[in-house]
């Protein structure tokens, strides 16, 4: 005898569906919070990128526009280097938005990685899209040099050619300001010069100096 199935009326919907567990609701909430956080981080990143492109400053452009070397003698035996050098430096601010405040300015000349003399330049201010000339900067003195044999050979070769390799370094503490945006930097500037030795009665040698661009790094 076949088993009879119970009669199902229209009010029977099957077993009750259990409500979502608390752990599932917690995972959904966590996913929602995570998506919102990721969206916020992405939006902030895009905003910072746009602001960086707008307000990122261009490097300042330094050039040694003139150099006048009228004495550069190394005394044999005492190794005293006697020098007389005058420099003019041109600084170009290519930024449209930023003005530059030079708060601390150190300028040094070196020969064979040995510092000959240091000058502290006056504080000054530079408008946007402008050029200033710093100088003349006069260096006149003597320095005890410690040259190895190779450096002595290089000095004698430069003396024979009448052109000396002299380095100029700048150390700054400056502010670049655009409205309420103020950026502070301590850039370094390096200028590798080839300076002909001349005299006041031989201006042709001095005129051989070529305008020299410097390396600028923030």
If you compute it from the alpha carbons, what radius of gyration comes out, rounded to the nearest whole angstrom? Answer: 36 Å
> Which class do the helix and strand fractions yield?
alpha+beta
Distance between the termini: 98 Å
Q: How many β-strand stretches?
A: 11
Domain module count: 2
Assign an overall shape.
Answer: elongated
Give, in order, the helices and strands: HEEEEEEHEEEHEE
Residue-averaged pLDDT: 86
Strand portion: over 45%
Protein name: NDR1/HIN1-like protein 10
Transmembrane segments: 29-55
Organism: Cucumis melo
Subcellular location: Membrane
Describe the structure.
Keywords: Membrane, Transmembrane, Transmembrane helix. Its main location: membrane. The chain crosses the membrane at residues 29-55. By secondary structure, the protein is of the alpha+beta class. It folds into two domains: 22-56; 61-217. It contains three helices and eleven strands. The chain has helices spanning 22-55, 149-161, 203-206; strands spanning 61-74, 80-93, 99-111, 114-121, 124-126, 130-144, 163-178, 181-185, 188-196, 212-213, 215-217. Strands 3, 4, 5, 7, 8, 9 and 11 form a seven-stranded antiparallel beta sheet that branches. It has a four-stranded antiparallel beta sheet with strand order 6-2-1-10, with no helix packed on it. Strand 1 and strand 2 (80-93) form a beta hairpin. The longest helix is centred in the N-terminal third of the chain and has 34 residues, at 22-55. It is elongated.
